[in-house]
Structure formats: C-alpha cells, structure tokens
Design a protein that fits this description.
Length: about 475
C-alpha cells in the first residue's frame, strides 16, 4: 500500500466482485492501482484481504482518487449498470481534465454508451465502453475485453488491458473493437450467444434425461466425453461439473434439487430487441430468452400440468446412436446460433457505421469469456479465409460439419417431438437452416396476402419493379414503378 500522490497508472472505482478482481489482476501485472468505492468498507476489505498482491493506493473521496492518478488519468468504472454508472461518470467528469480517459467496464446497454461517449467527448474527455466477459474468475485471471471508443485512447489503454486479458496461443483476448458503443454492442451479442449456447446444452441434457432416462451422473459422463471433442468449451466443461455435483443435504444430484425457473439479468433480452430493430433473425437467442421466461411462468406451468400429451413413442432403442445424434444436433445448432450472432454483429456494424471485424471477435472470444470454445478457432479461420463471409454456415468447414450432422439433427428433433420433449432451440435452428437453404419460401404467399388487404405491392420473379393486383376489381395486374 502506498500514500496518495499521483503515482497510479489506473484507478478502479466500484469494488464489488468484478471491480476488486480486476483491480487485483492489474496489480498482479505490476500496475499501481488507485482504489475507490462509494462505501469505503469495500476498499478496506479488498486491501485487508489482498493488499499484499501489488501496489494499491487507498482513497476515500473522488478528489483523492483523481489526485492519485498519473496523466492522462485512466479510470475504470465497475459499478452497477444503468443510473449508478451515469452518477459515477458525472462525478468523475466534474474533476477530470481534457485528455483523461473514463472506461466503463460494466454491462452497459450500447445505446447508453453511444450517448455517454458523445457527452464526454463534448467535455474533452475520452470515454471507452469496454465489454468484459469471464465472470469473477475471468476478471481475476484474465477476462476477454472488448473496448470501444476513440482509437487514440486505445493507444494508451491497449497495452494495459491486453496485459490483464486472457491469452490464447500468446494472443491477448482484447482488441480495439470500434467507435463509441461498439464494444458494449459486441459484448451484448456475446451474451446473447451465451444464452443460446446454454439453452442448447440444456436441451441436450433434457433429451438424455427424458428420452433415455439417464441420471445426472451418467449425463455428466457424456458431457465430459463431449468436452474432449469438437464441442470442447467452457460451458460444456462446467455442465459436466455441475451435473456431477451431489447435494450435501439430500445426497441427490444438486441439479435435481434446484428450482427449474431460470432467471435473466437482461443482456439476452437486449440482444433480441436489437436484433428485431436490425431485422436479423437470431432465432436461437430469442428462443433461449423465451425459454427462460417460460420456465419462470410458474402459474401457467402449474395450470398446464396434466394437459394431454397425445400418444408418445417409446424411448430410442439404440442408446449409443441417440447420444451421438444429440451430440451432432448440439454442434449443428450451436453453429447456427453463432452464425446468427455474427450476422447481428455485421448488421449492427452497418447500422452504426462501425468497421467491425468478425474474425477479430472470434479471436478474442477464444479465451477468457464464457463462450470460449474450441470451435472459435474455426470461426476465426473462416473469417480469415473470407472476411466478407455472407453467413458462417456457408464457410467450407461449417458447411461440412452441418452436412455430417444434419441427419442426426433431424432424428433428434423428430424424437423430441414424438416423445413430447421441448427443444425450442434445436428445432428453430434446424428450421432456420432449412429456411435458408430452401429454393422457395412461402413468403411469396405472404407478399400476395399483403397486397390483397393492403395494396403493399410485390416483386415478380420474371420482371423488375413493384406490382399490384386489383384484388377487389377485375384482378388485373399493374406495374407501380
Ligand atoms: P454490482 O453490479 O453488484 O454493483 C455493485 C457496485 O456498484 C458496488 O461497488 C456499489 O457500491 C456500486 N454502486 C451502486 Br450499486 N450504486 C452506486 C452509485 N449510485 N454510485 C456509486 N457506486 C454505486 O457489481 P459487480 O457484480 O461487481 O459488477 C460490476 C459491473 O460489471 C456491472 O455493471 C456488471 O453488470 C458488470 N459485469 C458483471 C459480471 C459478473 O459476472 N458479475 C460480468 C461481467 C460484467 P457500494 O459498495 O457502495 O454499494
């Protein structure tokens, strides 16, 4: 611990679980870190428990905190997203000087970051909205960091953030994403993909449990095995660990005594709202968000208990084949979920004029973050081969992976339907795939219907322009433009 002169390379304000672990990570990498928290007790708790891990500067007031920082001052805000972040930004901006850098490492909504960046720029301050993923462990040992904001601030900030980020093959899981809200935008989509990935894993578990009658420990073994192959990922790995956990009170698998109502903090919902505005079909993410909402609809679920299932088929006879089918269906559905997320990132980049590089995102998501997975290397390679890839599913590797999985995928969705097991994300991902590859969609009929009741016009396959049929007249067709 050191006295309060301008010696700290960075300050962290907001010392709850994430902020204190990032402050420790910075100190462990040799930076002198000024510490600040609204209630001083958290600052002291951090210093008591970990003050010997590096050089920290204890401060109580914002003025002391700012005075402790070298120029240009760099302050990382790690407080609750929303109003608390606005309040802290305002307090800091009042005492900071032109050229100083404010970094918001919280889970801000990207449109808030766009607003905040503009407001700070007008006051001569650099504002960096940085998405940080990896939870508390990642914050301490190396998260994935997605900083947006002015390029110039990354020159000063980049080396520092890259040093504390996770590394894969020596490459830091941190890169400058783009202007203003871009960092928080891609972090939001990252979280949306995380929702889809978790839902798909949940559906695979549900199928093994209810179609095959496996208990949690048997399913844990299956996930452990899957983790050693192309599905290898943090989420699959922790799934195996969770399923293997025994409840100390009852002696049952812990998962069997946890209430089956999933909660959400909002980033999945934000992703879907943004996708609706951008017109991007992120069906896997949307189904995942709705599946959590459905699980929490306790009154409706109680009321529906005992409703007719219709005639259900027997359980699959070839257990080994079914497990392999589920593995392949999971992989194919996962490819679709990531493809949809990357489509949303591309659309957001166009909408907001950000030059987003999907290959860079795949690179920095290989480590540190919750969706880190072996196959992100494949995504990275796909965008290296073709930076203008129309969709991940048409990249040669993924095209082939789906080709190998598609029969299994269909069998799994059919079995789920015939056994009355809900698989919204598996099924919607397969439908998305079938819709994309279809030669003709029923959208032609939709267009005709819209023209019928609203004279909305349609295009023809054989001539340019917009057309309208006089539906309530003689049904002749006119060309509008
Ligand atoms: P929380 O989101 O629980 O926030 C607690 C912190 O916010 C405390 O330091 C608290 O100060 C401070 N705070 C609040 Br609440 N209102 C304040 C105000 N009006 N003025 C000043 N400070 C205020 O902490 P967290 O879970 O560590 O997360 C920090 C940020 O990181 C959040 O934006 C979160 O969304 C994001 N994030 C979290 C995770 C994760 O895994 N938890 C992962 C990635 C990102 P006090 O001690 O005085 O009450």
């Amino acid at each position: 611990m050191t006295s309060s002169t301008a010696i700290a390379q960075i300050g962290v304000t907001g010392l709850a679980v994430m902020g204190s672990n990032i402050a420790r990570n910075l100190a462990r990498h040799g930076y002198t870190v000024a510490l600040h928290n609204r209630s001083v007790a958290k600052t002291d708790a951090l210093l008591d428990a970990h003050g010997n891990e590096g050089e920290f500067v204890r401060t109580e007031t914002i003025e002391e905190f700012i005075a402790a920082l070298e120029r240009p001052r760099r302050v990382l805000i790690m407080v609750k997203a929303g109003e608390a972040t606005d309040a802290v930004i305002e307090e800091l901006a009042a005492v900071m000087e032109p050229g100083d850098i404010i970094i918001d490492g919280g889970n801000a909504l990207y449109t808030d970051t766009i607003r905040r960046e503009a407001a700070m720029k007008a006051r001569g301050l650099n504002f960096v909205g940085a998405g940080i993923s990896g939870g508390e462990e990642g914050a301490l040992h190396g998260p994935a960091i997605m900083p947006g904001g002015p390029k110039e601030s990354y020159e000063s900030l980049g080396p520092l953030l890259e040093s504390i980020a996770a590394k894969v093959d020596g490459v830091p899981c941190c890169t400058h994403i783009g202007p203003d809200g871009s960092g928080h935008f891609v972090k939001m989509v990252h979280n949306g993909i995380e929702y889809a990935d978790m839902q798909l894993i949940g559906e695979a578990y549900h199928l093994l449990r209810d179609a095959l009658g496996f208990d949690a420990s048997r399913i844990a073994e299956v996930f452990t095995e899957w983790n050693s192959g192309e599905l290898g990922s943090y989420l699959v790995e922790i799934t195996a660990q969770v399923l293997g956990q025994i409840d100390a009170t009852t002696g049952k698998p812990l998962v069997d005594v946890i209430v089956d109502a999933a909660e959400q903090k909002g980033t999945g919902r934000w992703t879907v709202k943004s996708a609706l505005d951008l017109g991007v079909p992120v069906t896997g993410i949307a189904e995942a968000v709705f599946a959590r909402a459905l699980s929490g609809s306790r009154a409706q679920r109680r009321a529906a208990q005992g409703l007719a299932s219709g005639t259900l088929t027997e359980k699959p006879t070839d257990t080994t084949q079914f497990i392999e089918d589920v593995r392949r269906a999971l992989y194919a559905s996962k490819i679709v979920a990531y493809a949809q997320g990357f489509d949303q990132i591309a659309a957001g980049g166009i909408e907001y004029g950000w030059d987003l590089r999907p290959g860079d995102l795949a690179t920095i998501w290989r480590g540190g973050c919750i969706i880190r997975a072996r196959f992100l290397n494949r995504i990275k390679e796909a965008y290296e081969d073709n930076p203008d890839l129309t969709s991940l599913i048409v990249a040669p590797y993924f095209r082939e992976a789906i080709e190998q999985a598609v029969d299994s995928w269909r069998r799994v969705v059919s079995t789920a339907v015939q056994r009355g097991i809900p698989v919204p994300a598996f099924a919607c991902s397969l439908s998305y795939y079938d819709a994309l590859r279809a030669r003709r969609l029923p959208a032609a009929l939709t267009q005709a219907q819209r023209d019928f009741f609203g004279a909305h016009t349609y295009e023809r396959t054989d001539a340019p322009g917009a057309f309208h049929t006089l539906w309530s007249g003689d049904r002749s067709e006119t060309r509008i433009e």
